Amino acid sequence: MAHQLAAQQFASFQKDLEGISKRTMEEHYKLYQGYVNKYNEIQTKLQALTADDYKAANPTYSLVRELKVELARAVGGVKNHELYFAHLGGKGGEPGAALKAQLEKDFGSFDKWLADFKATGVAARGWAFLAWDREYGRLFNMIGDEQFSFPVWNAVPILAMDVFEHAFFIDFGAAKAGYIEKFFANLDWGDVEKRFAGAK
Description:
Blueprint: H1 7-11, H2 22-47, H3 51-55, H4 63-86, H5 97-107, H6 110-123, E1 127-133, E2 138-144, E3 155-162, H7 169-172, H8 176-185, H9 189-199
Antiparallel strand pairs: 1-2, 1-3
Helix pairs in contact: 2-4
């Protein structure tokens, strides 16, 4: 099944973000387009697999393994970026009462959560996520070092921060922490709150 680009979503913040340039966002969107294109290409190749391809499946190397591994990376690249783009373009600040209360319960205070999340982002190689764990009934800050390395089963990401170099290097060079500050200045907490309500 083909995936369509979330072009309307991207167009909604084609305005100037505070501290994050239009050029960065345009280049970032091109990278996301690449994930969508590869997802569609891999799906076509999976549909073309033959009985012999399935018989040749092997954990060292096989076409089935290659396509399945790269499908996971492509799907992660698509979903992670769509989540990230969806909550950029806001005015920062703090979340509404329900989400803030849950953050205070799970982390001790909003400020402690924020310090933990920012440190998670600095420590991550690719992504920092805030996720609602449906089994444990609490929020966690989690690292996803690759596009497909997040999955914690029954945990739903409600906030995604891209910390791969492509997200900040044009504007900040190697100063990842400066980018993280601007990410929060542009965060749309309303989008995060909707995802939190849906996850619960």
